[in-house]
Amino acid sequence: MAACSVEELLAKAEQDEAEKLKSITVKKELDLEFDIGNLLASDKNRLESRDFREQKKEDFLRSLARDNTQLLINEIWKQPTERVDEAIVTKLPDTVTPLPREKPPPKPRPPTKWEEFARLKGIQNKKNTNLVWDENAKDWRRRWGYKRAKDDTKEWLIEVPVTADPNEDQFAKRATAKKERVAKNEFNRLKNIARAQKVKLPGVGLTPVAQQCKEDLVRAVSVARTSTASVGRFQDRLPKEKPPKNTGKKRKFEPLIGNFSTEKQKQLDLLNLMNGKKPKLDINKAVDNQIREEKREEAAARYKKGAGKKGRRGNMPGKGGKGKGGQTGKSGGGKGSKFGGQGGKSGGQGGKRRGKLGKH
Amino acid sequence: MTQLDGIVKPKTKRSKRFLEGRAPKLTEDVKTAMIMKGGNSSLTVTQALKDIYSLKKPNAVLYKKKNITRPFEDSTSLEFFSKKSDCSLFLFGSHNKKRPNNLVFGRLFDFHVLDMIEVGIEKFVSLSEIKTSKCPEGTKPMLVFAGEAFDTDNEHKRLKSLFIDFFRGPAVTAVRLAGLEHVLHFTALEGKIYMRSYRSLLKKSGCRTPRIELEEIGPSFDLVLRRTHLASDDLFKLSHRRPKTLKIRKKKNISRDAFGTKLGRVHMQKQDLSKLQTRKMKGLRKRRGPKVAEDPDAQAPKVAKVEG
């Protein structure tokens, strides 16, 4: 009797369970595919168009949607949950469906001329401390910027060097030197941008120099001559003057009817060239590459060795560790102005050169 | 050189921030949609555009004026608009005799049209026509696609991908369970696409998972496919390319078995048994050997270190 009741009870419980589950189970021939990260389900089952016509359309669609949503909800409820501020939150996995991006992924910034050079030579950024001991002020001061240590812009008196012209204004000299350094750095920055964008740079043209050499003068003459409305077409030459250099090539065409044998030979040569598909070895380039590679390795080796021996070189006692980072960018910039401007001739013309460029 | 093409140097911090916001990113923001109508549009189309705007709302721009363009003939103006408003999805509505009640769904990659799919509205019930309580604005919808056409037919496949892109809302890592209210159901049947929008009611079922009842809230569309402009395979592939840094690299020597237990593989050198420390006893204590024998041994590694 007792056993029977237990069995009955068990059976009843089972039935209850099944009934409970009944309300949330949906039978489908093919399982749905889910992408829980996107809250997405796709039902690949064949839809009976007969049902669709017999039933009311809206009811059919709604019952289909209900079943599919129930399955999706069942799947979502299986994900791990969490309680955040009185609300139950489900963690969603990563999305599965591949979707196109909006924009192409960002490209890394191409190295500047200085960075390339530093890599070649194995130069690495040193970390300078931000604070430096100032002897005059007897204080720790910033290396750069407002209230800097050893500030040479605030001096009220400058000693005239023995070699210098006594009538020269030393203050003005400093100011112009600074201006030129800034201009040169800006020029290099623009060149770097242009290089990164692969824009073809217009020639710098003629730059004013203190002492013009012969080539410069020749170039100046030729530039002046071609700077007319008719590009120097009607300009007279001096007797015994050499033809101007770098004037560009004139196109020359073969005569339409003429020597057939040379034409044939030309075509045959071209064919030969196309047939023999050997890569052309540029010995100069290869040797250059090799040398460059060796230099780089050497530099790397040297750097490693040096680092092992010397360790960190700090020229300040005590507070060496303070003010990390911060300085690196600045020091890099400063060096950039020193070395990066190999393309330009000298710093002296930075400002003026820039002025000219606008017209190009 | 001062005027380099395509290089915009911001003059203020604010404009710099703005440009950074628009620059390509590793993990991208939500795609925004621009919704606009053509030179002529019917009441149906205008209302449909408004309704889709309200479904998409925080991430959409509704263009109020007419824009006389034809996306399938010349997409340059669309590309221009997308650059202006930084949108990569668009919906264009128009109405004419040849193609009445016309909608063009599309998306752009790098400000160039990737896919465009034109659909015609056969039947439309707007959001306001159905008088029920609606879902709050900006709810992330559950998307359900039914019908085998979405897996067999090429155009339907692309349309499915486009609809997912268009309606999925922001990509999130977690959702509030009670907030799963909105269901968008797309059914492909007999050459038509039925788009229905329901509010889901979570009923008690006796177990943890609730029973779902649906209530239609609109808008609902019966759509037919018209012209399509699908991206070439190359471009499509290019647009799917994921940056290397985002790809998850597989960790070596870690595996999981069927029960989800984490297993690690450890590579060991062969143990030198002669140096094994056994029990210490007075009788087994090492005798001090002659010092001369030890010295070269101690020096040898030092030399090696300097060389390295």
Automatic annotation (TrEMBL), chain A:
Entries under InterPro entries matching the protein: Ribosom_reg
Q: Which UniProt keywords apply?
A: Nucleus, Ribosome biogenesis
Reply yes or no: does the keyword Nucleus apply.
yes
Where is this chain primarily localised? nucleus
Task: Locate the region Disordered.
Answer: 232-260, 284-360
Q: Does the keyword Nucleus apply?
A: yes
A single GO CC term for this protein reads: nucleolus
Q: Where is the composition biased (Gly residues)?
A: 317-350
> Subcellular location, in the record's words?
Nucleus
**GO biological process per UniProt:** endonucleolytic cleavage in ITS1 to separate SSU-rRNA from 5.8S rRNA and LSU-rRNA from tricistronic rRNA transcript (SSU-rRNA, 5.8S rRNA, LSU-rRNA); ribosomal large subunit biogenesis
Cross-referenced Pfam families:
RRS1
Q: Which residue windows are coiled coil?
A: none
Q: Where is the composition biased (Basic residues)?
A: 302-313, 351-360
Q: Where is the composition biased (Basic and acidic residues)?
A: 234-244, 284-301
Family the UniProt entry places it in: Belongs to the RRS1 family.
The protein's job, in short, is: Involved in ribosomal large subunit assembly.
Q: What protein name is recorded for this chain?
A: Ribosome biogenesis regulatory protein
Q: Which organism is it from?
A: Zoarces viviparus (Viviparous eelpout)
Automatic annotation (TrEMBL), chain B:
A single Gene Ontology MF term assigned here is:
rRNA binding
**Predominant location:** nucleus
Q: Where in the cell is it found?
A: Nucleus, Nucleolus
Q: Which domain of life is it from?
A: Eukaryota
Q: Does the keyword Nucleus apply?
A: yes
SMART domains documented for this protein = Brix (SM00879)
Q: Boundaries of each Brix domain copy?
A: 31-234
Ordered alphabetically, the record's keywords are:
Nucleus
UniProt-annotated stretches for the region Disordered: 270-308
Compositionally biased intervals (Basic residues): 277-290
Give any Gene Ontology cellular component: nucleolus
**GO terms for biological process, alphabetical:** maturation of LSU-rRNA from tricistronic rRNA transcript (SSU-rRNA, 5.8S rRNA, LSU-rRNA); ribosomal large subunit assembly
Q: Name one Pfam family in it.
A: Brix
Which PROSITE patterns did the record assign? BRIX
Asked whether the keyword 4Fe-4S is assigned, the reply is no
Report the InterPro entries cross-referenced here.
Brix, Rpf2
Family assignment from sequence similarity: Belongs to the RPF2 family.
The cross-references to PANTHER family, in alphabetical order and at most eight, read: BRIX DOMAIN CONTAINING PROTEIN, RIBOSOME PRODUCTION FACTOR 2 HOMOLOG
User: What is the protein named?
Assistant: Ribosome production factor 2 homolog
Source organism per entry reads Zoarces viviparus
